[in-house]
Each structure stands twice: as C-alpha cells, then as structure tokens.
Amino acid sequence: MANPTVRVLTLLELLQAHRYMSGRELAERLGIDRRTLRRYIQTLEELGIPVTTERGRHGGYRLMPGFKLPPLMFNSEEALAVSLGLLAAQGLGIAETAPALQTARAKLERVMPARLKQQAQALNESARLELPAARAPGDERLLLLLATATQARQRVRLDYRDDREQHTQRVLNPYGLVFRSGRWYVSGWCHLRRDLRSFRLDRIIEATPLEASFDRPADFDPAAHLARSIASLPRAVAVSVRLHTDLAHAVEELGRHIGVFTPDGSAVLLYARTDSLTWFARQLAHQPYDFEILDPPELCDALAQQAVRLKRLAVQTDQ
After folding, report:
1. What are the sequence ranges of the domains in the chain?
2. CATH: 1.10.150, 3.90.75, 2.60.40, 2.30.30. Which one for 139-232?
3. How much is the average pLDDT of 68-81?
4. How far is it, in rounded angstroms, from Cα 18 to Cα 62?
5. Per the database record, which ranges form the HTH deoR-type domain (predicted)?
6. Lower CB count within 10 Å: N or C terminus of the chain?
7. What tens digit of pLDDT does each residue of 294-309 get?
8. Contact criterion met (CB below 8 Å) for 188 and 174
9. Distance (Å, rounded) from C-alpha 64 to C-alpha 69?
10. Cα dihedral 293, 294, 299, 305 in deg (nearest 10)
11. Ramachandran quadrant class, 265 (left: phi over 0; alpha: psi -120 to 50; beta: rest)
12. Pairwise CA distance, residues 144 & 154, whole Å
C-alpha cells in the first residue's frame, strides 16, 4: 500500500467501518507514522469529510455521527466505461498503479448491483485491449506532478537527459501529456530553446514545480504537436507525397507516426523525413489508393525496385 492516495482512501474506509479508532491503531493498519496519519486526516478534511479528533495520549478519530458517503450508482453504459478504463490503464506503463487497479476494481464491484458486477467481471476476465506495450517504465509521481502543473499553469524545472546522454536543465511551461507508442511525453514551451518542445518522461531525472505561472494557448493539441515533432526529426532525407484519398483514410493506412498530413483539395499531402528510402517505398507500396511522389526523385527509384521485386516474386509463385 505504498501509494498515498490508496492509503487515504483506506483510511476513509476504516473510519466508515469502525465507530472509533485510535491514532495508534490507524497508523499500524496503514503502515505509517503518526505525523503522516495527521496529514492524511487533514487531506480528508480538505475534501469536505468531517473527521472528529479526540486529543490526548489515547486520542483517536471518528467520522461525524450520521456522515456517510453516498453509494456509487452506475448504469450499464457507465459500468462498461469504467471497466474498459481500468483495462486500458493496465497498459500505460505505470507500475505503481497495478495494485491500485485491482483494489479500485474490487471496490467498484462491491457497490455494483449483481447484474452489473457480473458484467464487469466478465469483461475483465475475457477482454484484452491490444494497446502499444509500454516501452519505458512510467513514474506515477512524475506523471501526477506534470499533470498538476499543466492544470495549474505552473512552470516546471526539468533535469533532462537526451538520447546522447547529455544533461541539461530546462524551464518548461507544460501544455499537455501524451502516451504514444508505449512512452509518456510532456509537450510545452521550453525557455532554454525558446520554442515548443516535447520531452520523454523516462528521460526526466528530476522535475521541480516553480512559482511562476504561464498562459496556455487555447488551441494547443499536445498529441498533434508530438506527431509533428517526431515526423520532423532531423533524419537524412525529406519526403513529400500527394495521396489521392481523404485524411482519415491516409492516417488509418499509414499511421500518424509516419509524418505530417495536410489536406490538399480532394487529396492529402504527406511530409516526412526518413533514413531509408527503401523502407519508405515499402510503406507506399501497400497503399490501396493512388499517390504521386513529389520529392525526392530517388524515392521513385526505390519504389521501382520494390515493383521489380514483387514482379519477380509473383513469377516465382506462378511457376
């Protein structure tokens, strides 16, 4: 029970289940010291839960007589949404949340009617979501710190290690968090580079909230910015292709990670960078719609080589 949020919720459950408990009993049940217990009691009070404190050597705590949290009530659609959310959360790479997911599921099932409980259990036992596997361990503390700073419009100082193992200190206006291809990113305004930047959370060594605040652009989309950033990484060759299809179909077939898609009349322009024209030609070769290679000419040669290879394989198959 290392998660403070889980401990606070457990404290509330203990106070609801027992008419009165001493500070010593509560601290032992939660595995914390008395000072931490008092801090958790204060957290409950700040949430509007009336806790009566009896001071003294044998002092303890009780909920105000008559206080009960209202029961959770779900309809079928809400129960499905919560169950799918818990399933999806298992794949987000936050190891500390694994026990919390199990306890959250158990608590929800305890307050569900029998029919909804059976549906939730059936979904948990039989359904699996094929989400991208976490490629780097997530840090719950860091994720919550950056989410809080984003919501509060609060600057953060980052101690960051890049892909070349170089360490820098950055001051960031965090605009949003994105989970993409198995990794967590934070996007925002970097004061060191004086530009928008995205940072992988698994490369952040330390993050410290600062007192300074900022204004977040109202139309900023962190996921779209991250996609553009990855597509424009300084790879060897710039590529531009006109795809004769609509935007949704282009993204569905090629994947948003490949580059930046821009509607162009009845077509879509794709701008990307790649270190391998052969690889890029293979991606184009299996598209179900027509396209025009605008640049570079060498990509046409790479695509022609793919056509020769496929023709050769087709002839071998016929024989």
Report:
1. 4-63, 76-126, 139-232, 237-314
2. 2.30.30
3. 71
4. 8
5. 4-63
6. C
7. 999 999 999 999 999 9
8. yes
9. 12
10. 30
11. left
12. 13
Cα distance between residue 259 and residue 276, in whole Å: 14
State how far the Cα of 308 lies from the Cα of 15, in Å rounded to an integer: 74
Q: What is the pTM of this model?
A: 0.58
Tokens read off for 212: 């300074």
Q: How confident is the model at residue 69 (pLDDT cuts 50, 70, 90)?
A: low
SS3 of the chain: helix, strand, coil, percent, to 5: 45, 25, 30
Q: Which residues contact 317 (CB under 8 A, 6 or more apart)?
A: none
CB 186 within 8 A of CB 138: no
Continuous segment of H or E residues that includes residue 185: strand 183-190
CA distances from 246 to 175, 228, 253, 254, 272 (A): 30, 19, 11, 12, 18
